[in-house]
Design a protein that fits this description.
heterodimer; A: 115 residues; mainly beta; B: 113 residues; 11 strands
Chain lengths: 115, 113
Amino acid sequence: GENVEQHPSTLSVQEGDSAVIKCTYSDSASNYFPWYKQELGKGPQLIIDIRSNVGEKKDQRIAVTLNKTAKHFSLHITETQPEDSAVYFCAAWKGRGGSNYKLTFGKGTLLTVNP
Amino acid sequence: NAGVTQTPKFQVLKTGQSMTLQCAQDMNHNSMYWYRQDPGMGLRLIYYSASEGTTDKGEVPNGYNVSRLNKREFSLRLESAAPSQTSVYFCASSLGSIGETQYFGPGTRLLVL
């Protein structure tokens, strides 16, 4: 089955700096890669996603890049703010076929933005 | 729209007790999911339902059962709770294809003593 590795597990940055979280996946058939943000005591919330036919996607201060050859994708947050502090999860989805219908999540990155 | 709602928010059980976690969505989504979240383990899929009337096992189904009561509701039942089932449980839903753009509920924190 799919395996998603996420690094680092914790990340501390100063307000205004950039933060980068990286994920690798094992199944080259995976074609959808969402990123979720989870604030303390809440459920994960989708913040950005990318499909395998696109190499980069931006939404204001957030961007995601995908390298299909190397099977890795990254989340980039620029001009970080204290409210960006949360746990971030990457995930990979393979699509239809057999029983592999599920999203496979990385284990999460705790991002702390220090004022 | 309330999105995905879950009840209860917190629950304490004794080993061997049973309970049902309730989940409902008001987004007219076809697919629904149950995950558990444990420290350092990320989110692991317990069961999912691609559409009303169908359910399938996920990554960690042992000790759980589910019911897709109708399009809106998807419940998770623990027949005989064990301390290993202490976790935070999240319900999620998606509009169409399994796995795409899932919307999560606020979670149920379960402690089994």
